[in-house]
Amino acid sequence: MFEARLKINVPFFDVDAMHVVWHGHYVKYMEMARSELLRQFDYDYPTMKANGHLWPIVDLRLKYVASARYGQDIEVIAKLTEWEHRLRIDYVIRCCDTQKVLTKATSIQVAVDIASEEMLFESPDILFDKLGVQRS
C-alpha cells in the first residue's frame, strides 16, 4: 500500500578493500528509503517531532543474501506493513540489473511522547490522518 523505491549507485567510500559494501551501510540505505517513504505521506522526522512524537527504532533485523559491490546500481524498496501500534517497514535491496535479492530486512519503530518520554501503545491520530486511513 505504502511503498518507496530508491536507486543507489554504490559509492567507493561504502566499500571495503574487496570492493564489497560494508555491512553497516545497508542500514544507511534502508534509512534513506525509509525517509523517502515517510515523506510520501508528509510524516518525516521533522513532522513527527513537530507533532510531539519521536519514533525510535526498537528492533532491526537484516538477512544478508549476497553482496553489493562498488559501482553497482541497487534498488532499496521500503514498504510500510503495520501502523496501528507501531511502524513496521519491510525492505528488500536488490541488484537493478539482475533483480537478484541482496538483503531483506525489517525495522520496528514505536511512538514516544516527547513531553512525557512515555512510549505510546497506539500510534497517534496524526499518523492515521497522514495515511488517510481509519483506525480498525
TrEMBL record:
Source organism superkingdom: Bacteria
Keyword flag DNA repair: no
Pfam families reported in the protein's UniProt record: 4HBT_2
GO MF annotation terms: hydrolase activity
InterPro entries from the UniProt entry: HotDog_dom_sf (IPR029069), YbgC/YbaW (IPR006684)
Keyword match Secreted: no
SUPFAM superfamilies: Thioesterase/thiol ester dehydrase-isomerase
Keyword annotations of the record: Hydrolase
Sections of the chain in a coiled coil: none
Identification of the protein by name: Acyl-CoA thioesterase
Native source species: Pseudidiomarina homiensis
